[in-house]
Amino acid sequence: MFMIIVLFIMLVLKLAEVWIFATMSWWWIIGGACAVFVWFEFIERMLGLDKRKDHAHYEKIQKERVKRAFDKKTNRR
User: Fold this and answer.
1) CA distance 71 to 62
2) Where are the domains of the chain?
């Protein structure tokens, strides 16, 4: 996500022609976009980072659901 934010800031500064970004080549932005694409489409999947985030999210939901179920049972007695 950090890479996307940096790429977006570079793009805005390039379009606004601010400071050193005014003379910067468009290939830096295109190359950065390609690198971000490759990271999120291929490398992150190979490392399993996308699944870890999903599993952590679903584990959190499951723990909350179990906690609510046990809280309901203890309140009945």
Assistant:
1) 14
2) 2-76
**pLDDT tens digits, one per residue of 47-71:** 877 676 677 788 888 889 888 888 8
| CB environment 2-41: b (16+ within 10 A), e (fewer) | eeeeebeebeebbeeeeeebeeeeeeebeebbeeeeeeee
Q: Are 36 and 2 in contact (CB under 8 A)?
A: no
Q: What is the pTM of this model?
A: 0.61
